[in-house]
């Protein structure tokens, strides 16, 4: 499995670097993370619960930081055991570059191998789960950095859905009474929900 992504963070490079090395922030941001504890120099013991398709398991593993070039980049080497679910191991190269005075571009390339039941699930499900976990991590990470929904051009997944009904309602109101029937039903259904 390989994953390459780029994200804009709403803070200067040094602040982004500090947050990426703050275990308290990382614990809150990593979906399913139960603990991150120092385990030697630039190494951490990690416990987390993850679901990949029908397989849900508690993984215990270790992360080691290498090739550290503060505050620009490092490589994370990781391995984890999930009991009967199988194992995962790999590495990720993380890079930070200034994107103006108060923003930073974070890019990473990760590769991983899985074994056991995880390998039997199929690469599409494993890749999909990895992308979903990464998306959730960056949503939470941006919020921790004080970005909220607007920062760095990253919108919260729920924000779009919340805006949709009011935009649809405004558009159908603009059409006047001659609008088509399904939109009228939707309007009255939305009004009924908001009253209850």
UniProtKB/TrEMBL annotation:
<dbReference type="Pfam" id="PF06240">
    <property type="entry name" value="COXG"/>
</dbReference>
<dbReference type="InterPro" id="IPR010419">
    <property type="entry name" value="CO_DH_gsu"/>
</dbReference>
<protein>
    <submittedName>
        <fullName>Carbon monoxide dehydrogenase</fullName>
    </submittedName>
</protein>
<dbReference type="InterPro" id="IPR023393">
    <property type="entry name" value="START-like_dom_sf"/>
</dbReference>
<feature type="region of interest" description="Disordered">
    <location>
        <begin position="148"/>
        <end position="196"/>
    </location>
</feature>
<feature type="compositionally biased region" description="Low complexity">
    <location>
        <begin position="152"/>
        <end position="175"/>
    </location>
</feature>
């Amino acid at each position: 499995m390989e994953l390459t992504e780029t994200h804009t963070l709403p803070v200067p490079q040094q602040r982004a670097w500090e947050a990426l090395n703050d275990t308290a922030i990382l614990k809150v941001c990593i979906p399913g993370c139960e603990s991150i504890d120092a385990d030697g120099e630039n190494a951490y013991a990690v416990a987390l619960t993850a679901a990949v398709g029908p397989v849900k398991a508690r993984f215990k593993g270790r992360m080691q930081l290498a090739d550290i070039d503060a505050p620009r980049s490092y490589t994370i080497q990781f391995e984890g055991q999930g009991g009967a679910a199988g194992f995962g191991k790999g590495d990720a190269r993380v890079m930070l570059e200034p994107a103006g005075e108060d923003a930073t571009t974070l890019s990473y390339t990760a590769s991983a191998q899985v074994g056991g039941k995880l390998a039997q699930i199929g690469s599409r499900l494993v890749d999909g789960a990895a992308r979903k976990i990464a998306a959730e991590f960056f949503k939470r990470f941006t919020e921790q950095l004080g970005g909220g929904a607007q920062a760095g051009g990253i919108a919260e997944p729920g924000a779009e859905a919340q805006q949709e009904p009011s935009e649809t309602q405004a558009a159908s109101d603009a059409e006047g009474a001659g609008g088509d029937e399904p939109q009228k039903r939707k309007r009255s259904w939305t009004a009924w929900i908001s009253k209850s």
